[in-house]
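Problem 12. The chain below contains 80 residues. Write out its predicted structure in C-alpha cell notation.
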Amino acid sequence: MLLQYIKHSGSEFDVVIMVIPQASNMLLTRNLLYTGITRAKKLLIIISQDKIIESMIQNADSKKRNTGLVNKLKSIDLIK
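Solution.
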C-alpha cells in the first residue's frame, strides 16, 4: 500500500522499502517521498519508475484535503 508508512508516523526503521506505483499527482508529492526517506536509518530501497520519482521531486504542491471533518463536527455540535 502506498501510504502504509502512515501507521508508523514518526518511527524510524533500519531498512525501508518504498514501493511507489503510478498514482494521482495529489498523492505523489515531494513531501511523501521525503517522509519515506527519512524513516530509513541504515538502508533505503525505492522500487518505482524513474519518471515517477522525478515527478515527485518536482511536485512540491500541498493540496488542501477535503475530508468533510468540519461538517461532521458541526453536525454533532462539537464546533460552531
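Discussion. The first helix runs from residue 30 to 37. Students who got a different answer should revisit the alignment rule from Section 12.3.
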